[in-house]
């Protein structure tokens, strides 16, 4: 079944871009982004990525934090216990400091873009990726992301 392009369209009104950005989708629903600055490109990529994959991003965040059972119930408790023992977040500050400056500069707008799609009025959670539906039913809302979120 082919989805019409309109179902993947979202407005860039209110997004804090420095210059013009165009996001268009091909017949396979693959986004193509045209931007005049690297920061705007990163933000637009974050927008498109969250638009398509916000549910998956949230599930991975909950998994990494050992909080999956909040959404899936008792079946996630053993995995949450393991993930809390591993404490993956402990490594994030060191990973961030070891990244090249250009990469750290990219992560800020990238995470801001994914936060923007999950909090602005134009997405209204009605245009969010269908994968977010299970989280919505569990009473979850997209989280605010920091530059360390992609790490």
> Distance N terminus to C terminus?
34 Å
Radius of gyration: 17 Å
DSSP summary: helix tally:
6
Low-confidence stretches: 1-8, 121-127
Summarize the structure.
The protein has 151 residues and is mainly alpha-helical.
Q: What key phrases describe this protein's structure?
A:
151 residues; two-stranded antiparallel sheet; 6 helices; Penicillin Amidohydrolase, domain 1; disordered N terminus; mainly alpha
What does this structure look like?
The protein is mainly alpha-helical and 151 residues long. It has a single domain (5-137), classed as Penicillin Amidohydrolase, domain 1 (Orthogonal Bundle), CATH 1.10.439. 48% of the residues lie in helices and 7% in strands. It contains six helices and two strands. It has helices spanning 38-64, 69-72, 77-86, 92-98, 101-119, 133-137, and strands at 21-25, 31-35. A hairpin with a 5-residue loop joins strand 1 and strand 2. Helix 1 (38-64) packs across helix 5. The protein is globular, with a radius of gyration of 17 Å. The relative contact order is 0.18. The model is unreliable at 1-8 and 121-127 (pLDDT under 50).
């Amino acid at each position: 079944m082919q989805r019409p392009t309109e179902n993947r369209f979202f407005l860039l009104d209110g997004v804090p871009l420095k210059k013009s950005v165009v996001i268009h989708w091909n017949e396979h629903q693959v986004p193509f982004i045209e931007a005049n600055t690297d920061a705007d490109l990163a933000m637009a990529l974050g927008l498109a990525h969250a638009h398509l994959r916000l549910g998956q991003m949230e599930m991975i965040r909950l998994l990494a934090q050992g909080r999956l059972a909040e959404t899936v119930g008792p079946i996630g408790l053993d995995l949450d216990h393991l993930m809390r023992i591993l404490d993956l977040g402990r490594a994030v500050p060191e990973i961030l400091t070891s990244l090249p400056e250009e990469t750290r500069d990219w992560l800020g707008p990238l995470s801001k873009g994914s936060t923007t799609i999950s909090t602005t009025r134009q997405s209204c959670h009605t245009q969010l990726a269908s994968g977010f539906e299970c989280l919505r039913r569990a009473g979850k809302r997209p989280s605010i992301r920091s530059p360390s979120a992609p790490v």
